[in-house]
Amino acid sequence: MRDIHYIFWDNDGVLVDTEHLYFQASAEVLAEADIQISRAQFIDISLKRGQSVFDLAGPRHSPVRINNMREQRNRRYAELLQQGVHPMAGVTETLQQLHGRVKMAIVTSSHRDHFELIHRHTGLLEFFDFVLTREDYTHSKPHPEPYLMALAKSARPARHCLVVEDSERGLNAAVAAGLDCVVIPGELNRQSDLSSATRVLAHSSEIPDFIFTDFASKE
Question: How far apart are CA 20 and CA 108, in angstroms?
């Protein structure tokens, strides 16, 4: 019998629908430098490999120029976030069902300023015991460090924790940290390799039944 003590949630694409905005901001800035990036390229570079799309500018622009482009992207992304972000459909209801039955945390690759903009009006943060953003660790997903830090902070063994992700890079980070991971692939992640997931789900509403029925029956 395996009971879940902690759920570590990814943020973008799992709790909130923001990844298309990050793609938009990146594509706009790259286009100003005469570099076109397709959604397929963004998915491969960012969501699968966890690398920077601004590496595409490396052969043509100086490191200083590339850093300026990243800063411009971050400002544009913040502008898009300020227009309002809503929770993914059904997420609030799922968190309400789980709250008080298991502890929960957010482990995100978002920078803290963007994260705070995202959740200004979502009402979701009350459900979580702690949050780890990009500033809290050295190596981002798919490196296991973010989830290893979450494990240490939770003070729970890996067998009693579960990750909820939407991307291949997030899944790989969880697995490398020795954690079970359920994946809810969004529009940008449906063609990813999710074969190492504990379970692939269609919607967050399936998580309570999975945790308290299917997962609980595992040895």
Answer: 16
